[in-house]
Specification:
alpha/beta, 2 domains, Aspartate Aminotransferase, domain 1, 7-stranded mixed beta sheet, pyridoxal phosphate, 17 strands, pyridoxal phosphate binding
């Protein structure tokens, strides 16, 4: 079976983990510190916090901004539910805005009409490793005095203009899940350039602990969102190879484009001149006459694992029940959910695999 994705775990990754396990120092040790420093250097930010998941990073971001009951947060309708779930967890109101079907990111032309006096933040998602239109989002945030929390879970290394995503807003949140380019198993990174926000993140990440005058105290009811040292140790060699890992994905995406780009019932990913896409996922959009779920099953019979890309939040039971969202409220998100398809990508593949996957898809689609 050609897997949809597979973590790239080197011998050095394994050696690092063994070193930590043998040391007995399993939590918040030297490798966590190194990972945080390496991320700060890579992104050019003042503060980076390794946390237990990308969801934890998003949750901490909203807590650090003081967002809660009575506040509204704008979220793209097409994303993994964690983006909106953390809004619900802090007691705020989720306001969904549709996406566009070129980059699968929030449609910035539709954000302003969703802003109310209760809006406190915009949470753009850099979907599939593609940067959202951050210039438009920054302009709106400044106009209405809104915070920006970037969900860059899929997009470590992606750029808008000459700047890396996750560094535009008050906070940026990354995932280290196994589907991502680099992984710690479960894990995440939260970054910020603001000292006051960093102080709150550090406190809430670790049970509300604060050290003053060499004395420990608990100033808030905090959480345990720490990353273990052996998870950080697993991740560091991959981070050192990130440029190579991204280049591999871009090369494979270009290969897919060569094979699938002229197929009439497939829309391949759009590449923009002023954005660097890192292709966490190679996501195609099928024409409406294609039964996407049947195609998934057929490709599985050919030993190819594929899957849908993300969820249309307006179609999920929780959000449709609570907010009375209908499919028609965010039609692009719904279409992306039912006609989108994620293809295998990563260092576990070679050119022959990409050619086989592409040719098999074209042969199956010829029957439609």
């Amino acid at each position: 079976m050609i897997k949809l994705s597979k973590p790239y775990i080197t011998d050095q990754c394994i050696s690092n983990v063994v070193e930590v396990l043998r040391s007995g120092n399993l939590v918040q040790g030297q490798f966590v510190n190194q990972l945080e420093n390496d991320v700060k250097s890579y992104l050019g930010v003042k503060h980076a916090f390794a946390v237990s998941s990308g969801t934890a990073a998003l949750h901490l971001a909203l807590i650090a901004l003081g967002i809660g009951p009575g506040d509204e947060v704008i979220v793209p309708a097409f994303t993994f539910p964690a983006t909106a779930n953390v809004v619900e967890l802090v007691g705020a109101t989720t306001v969904l805005v549709d996406i566009n079907l070129d980059d699968f990111c929030i449609d910035t032309s539709k954000i302003e009409q969703a802003i109310t006096p209760k809006t406190k933040a915009i949470m753009p998602v850099h979907e599939f490793g593609q940067a959202a239109k951050m210039d438009d989002i920054i302009q709106l945030a400044q106009k209405y005095n809104l915070n920006i929390v970037e969900d860059a879970a899929c997009a470590l290394g992606a750029e808008f203009g000459s700047k890396k995503v996750g560094t535009f807003g008050e906070l940026g949140c990354f995932s280290l899940h196994p589907r991502k380019a680099i992984t710690s198993g479960e894990g995440g990174i939260l970054v910020t350039n603001k000292d006051d926000i960093a102080e709150k993140v550090a406190m809430y990440r670790n049970h509300g602990i604060v050290y003053k005058d060499s004395k420990l105290d608990f100033e808030v009811a905090g959480l345990n969102y720490r990353l273990t040292d052996f998870q950080a140790a697993l991740c560091i060699p991959q981070l050192e190879m990130l440029t190579e890992l991204i280049e591999c994905r871009i090369k494979q995406a270009n290969f897919y484009n060569d094979f699938l780009g002229c197929t009439s019932n497939i829309k391949t990913p759009v590449v923009f001149d002023n954005r660097k896409m890192v292709f966490q996922t190679y996501h195609i959009l099928l024409s409406d006459d294609i039964n996407r779920d049947l195609l998934i099953a057929t490709l599985k019979e050919h030993e190819i694992e594929v899957n849908f890309g993300a969820q249309a939040l307006n179609a999920l039971k929780y959000y449709s029940n609570k907010y009375s969202y209908k499919y028609s409220d965010c039609p692009n998100a719904f279409r992306a959910r039912v006609q989108g398809l994620a293809l295998p990508l990563g260092m576990h593949l070679n050119d022959a695999d990409i050619k086989y996957i592409s040719s098999t898809i074209k042969k199956v689609l010829c029957k439609y």
